[in-house]
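Progress against Task 2.4 (sequence-to-structure conversion) is shown through the following example record, which the project officer requested during the mid-term review.
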Amino acid sequence: MKEYFSKKMSHSNTYIYGRNPLIEQLESEPAKIEKIFLRDNLSGRVLDKIKDSASQNRIPVSFVPGNKLFEMVGNVNDQGVVALISPVSYIDFHEWLENINVDSGTAVLLLDEIEDPHNFGAILRSAAAAGISAVLVPKHRQSPVNAAVFKTSAGTAGRIPIVRVGNLNQAILELKEQQFWIAGLDQAAEATIWEMDATVPLAFVVGSEDQGIRKKTAEHCDFIYTIPMMNRVESLNASVSAALVCYEWRRRKRLNNE
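Structure tokens generated for the chain above:
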């Protein structure tokens, strides 16, 4: 077996390299490919095939100098082709939606552009521990499930479904059709998480580290909750906020069952 069929860990990421391994990955499991890097002077029919397949699967492609590829995978025969691979498989949103059993005790998280891998990993860990049914993530402006995420999640990234959606707002509308109520987290809200109704299926929207929930996404929410805070603390980071709402949901669910 040639060297370029192997995988390499570098800078907390997982890469594959070589033209044939990438084409095989595109044909067998394209959802695991986060991004493709091609040497900027690459040309030919294989390049066209890779670009066409990447476009069909909505995988971003970047043309970079050869030394950038060297930084990723080292001194190997990369053939001008490197791809960033997720160590955990994503689940297709519509496939997941068709198979989920929605009842009053179902809750999911929707991440609105969480780009920090440590926050993402911590969110996955809290969601798994609290019994959240799935974590839904957008394809763009979202941290991939890389080695840093997997490590921060303490391995729990493989224990909870990670569902990838093309458009978060469209996914929200489809969740509503399945009887989910959408609850966003925003520190400017008047209602608190202590007032949530945990007797209905819930989808909690957690916004990005810097901007919070986007305006259009907030407009689709049925409820907007804030997390009560003292001592003039203005905000918590995304992973802490997600953990608190997950466990408040869990606590209220337990009270409802007593």
